[in-house]
């Protein structure tokens, strides 16, 4: 079962440059440049879902080939979702979670992700 799970996950560093230290933000240009790599990876691996780690990343992801989705509401809190369309027309559902490095209640995000994957 573990092998099946790990063979179904792709981890991707969105920014294509190294940061100098923790909690450092990329530049606007670096976020824009990373969008091409994101589409290249999605077109190659054809994922069903993308979970962006961090609100900063979420707000800097590309706007092209994008469609807003319905919010997921858990415990009265809204989590934005959307979808990218791949070059073959296939849709990839996307959402963001708080970045794990800032600490987060795993039980809350587990419920959000479960709703997202439905």
Give a short summary of the structure.
The protein is an alpha+beta fold and 118 residues long. Helix content is 34%, strand content 22%. The protein has one domain.
Structural class: alpha+beta
**Spatial strand order of the main sheet:** 1-6-5-2
Q: How many helices?
A: 4
In quaternary terms, these chains amount to: single chain
Instruction: Give the N-terminus to C-terminus distance in angstroms.
Output: 20 Å
- How many domains in all? 1
Tell me, briefly, the overall form: globular
The overall pLDDT average reads 90
Topology (SSEs and partners):
Elements: H1 2-6, H2 28-45, E1 49-53, H3 55-60, E2 66-68, E3 72-74, E4 77-79, E5 81-85, E6 91-97, H4 106-116
Overview of the molecule:
The structure is a single chain. This protein has one domain. It is built from four helices and six strands; from the N terminus they run H-H-E-H-E-E-E-E-E-H. The two termini are 20 Å apart. By secondary structure, the chain is of the alpha+beta class. It has a four-stranded mixed sheet with strand order 1-6-5-2. The protein has a two-stranded antiparallel ribbon with strand order 3-4. A hairpin with a 5-residue loop joins strand 5 and strand 6.
């Amino acid at each position: 079962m573990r092998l099946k799970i790990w063979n179904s996950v792709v981890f991707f560093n969105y920014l294509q440059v190294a940061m100098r230290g923790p909690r450092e933000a990329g530049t606007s240009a670096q976020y824009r440049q990373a969008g091409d790599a994101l589409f290249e990876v999605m077109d190659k691996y054809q994922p069903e879902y993308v979970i962006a780690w961090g609100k900063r990343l979420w707000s800097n992801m590309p706007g092209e080939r994008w469609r807003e989705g319905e919010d997921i509401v858990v415990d009265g809190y809204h989590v934005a979702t959307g979808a990218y369309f791949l070059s073959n027309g296939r849709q990839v559902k996307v959402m963001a979670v708080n970045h794990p490095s800032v600490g987060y209640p795993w039980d809350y995000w587990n419920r959000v992700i479960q709703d997202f994957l439905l």
